[in-house]
Amino acid sequence: MGKTIMAVGAHTGDAQLTCGMLLAKHALAGDKIVIVDLTAGERGTPQGWTQADFRAYNVECAAKFASKLGGQSVVLDVPDGELYAGREIELRLASLMREHHVDAVLYHWKNSLHKDHEAAHRIAESALFYASLATFEMPLPPAPIRRFMCAENWEDAPGFEPYFWFDVTEAFPLWKEAIKELWLAEHSTSFKYLRYYEALSVARGARMGVDHATCFAASPIMEKRQILDLL
After folding, report:
1. What is the DSSP letter of 219?
2. Which of 45, 54, 111, 212 is deepest in the core (most CB within 10 A)?
3. Which residue ranges form the domains of the chain, and what is each CATH number?
4. What is the pLDDT of residue 230?
5. Model pTM?
6. Distance between CA atoms of residues 91 and 155, nearest Å
7. Residue 181 burial by CB count (10 A; 0-12/13-18/19+): exposed, middle or buried?
C-alpha cells in the first residue's frame, strides 16, 4: 500500500520548488501527494495585475502543478505576509494531516530571511504534534506520521545542513514540466527560481554521483529524538 506525502509551504511556490522533485519521485512510485500552501503568495503581484487576480491565478497554478503529479493542492485563505503561528491554523493543518492519513511531512527549515517561512515552520511542527498524538482528541484518528524533514530553500539557509539525500534523476523531468505551471518559476524578475533549483539539484547530484538530487535537513524535533535514543 502506498504512502501519503504532504508538503507544506508558506506561499504558493515554496513547497513546489523545494520539495517538488522528491514529491515527483514519490508520485512515480505510486504514492499519494498532498501540497498545502498556507498562503497564495499574492503580495508578489506582478505589474499590471490586481492582488485578487494574482491570488486566483496562483491557486489555479498550484492545482495544475499537483495534478501533473497526480496529487492534490490545498491553498488556505490566509493573507500573504500575515502568516502567524497559532492554535487555529495549527489545528487546521493537523486536521488535514489526519484527513489524508499522512505518512511523511516536508516543510520549511526553522530559520529564514522571510518571517512567513519561520511561521510556517512553527505551524507545521505544532500540527505534526496534534496530528500524530493519539491522546489529543480530534474528529479523525491520528495520522501515521513516521518521517518529517525540512526542505532546502534559498531564503531558509541560516543553519541549514543537509541530512537526507535523495536521487531524483528519474523524477526531474516530471518536476520540470510541472513547475513551469507556476508564474514565478520563469517570470519572476527578483530571483531566477527555476534556474537556481535546477542548478542546486545538479550540484547536489554531483555529490551523490547522479544527475539530480535533493536534500533535506533533520527537523529539530527529530534531532532531539535521536539524541534521546542514544542515551
Report:
1. P
2. 212
3. 4-230 (3.40.50.10320)
4. 46
5. 0.94
6. 26
7. middle
13 torsion bin: left (phi>0), alpha (psi -120 to 50), beta (else) = left
Instruction: Determine contact, residues 79/39, Cβ cutoff 8 Å.
Output: yes
Q: pLDDT averaged over consecutive 10-residue blocks of the chain (231 residues)?
A: 93 98 98 98 92 96 98 97 97 98 97 97 97 95 95 97 97 98 91 97 98 94 56 47
CB 142 within 8 A of CB 128: no
178, three cell numbers: 510541472
Please give the pLDDT value at position 229. Answer: 45
- 12 with 41: CB under 8 angstroms? yes
pLDDT at position 221: 75
In our burial notation (b when 16+ CB lie closer than 10 A, e otherwise), range 112-139 reads: bebebbbbbbbbbbbbbebbbeeeeebe
